[in-house]
Amino acid sequence: MVIQPEIDTLLSKVDSKYTLCILSARRARQINDMLRGVRDQALLTMAPSQISSLTSTKPLTLALEEIASGDVGYERVKDSYK
Fold first, then answer.
1. DSSP the chain
2. Based on the number of CB atoms within 10 Å of its own CB, is 17 exposed (0-12), middle (13-18) or buried (19 or more)?
3. Where residue 29 falls among pLDDT bands split at 50, 70, 90?
4. Predicted structure pTM score
5. Cβ 51 vs Cβ 43: under 8 Å
6. What is the dihedral of CA 48, 50, 56, 58, to 10 degrees?
């Protein structure tokens, strides 16, 4: 089983594995909330096969891909991340 994106690529984008964990979890929650809203709207207008194709990728996978591509960043503040 090959994990994409590779962990080395992800760790090069952040300062520690703990930062990666927090950043990816927060972004995955944002994506999940967005998908839930899209799914609710889609139920009114789209066919079930179209809805499943919209949500086939897991939110955490999308978050890690965004971090690897540099689309998601973070700013370290006093006691947390922003």
1. ---SS-HHHHHHHSS-HHHHHHHHHHHHHHHHHHHHHHHHHHHHHS-HHHHHHHT-S-HHHHHHHHHHHTS----B-SSSB-
2. exposed
3. very high
4. 0.73
5. yes
6. -90
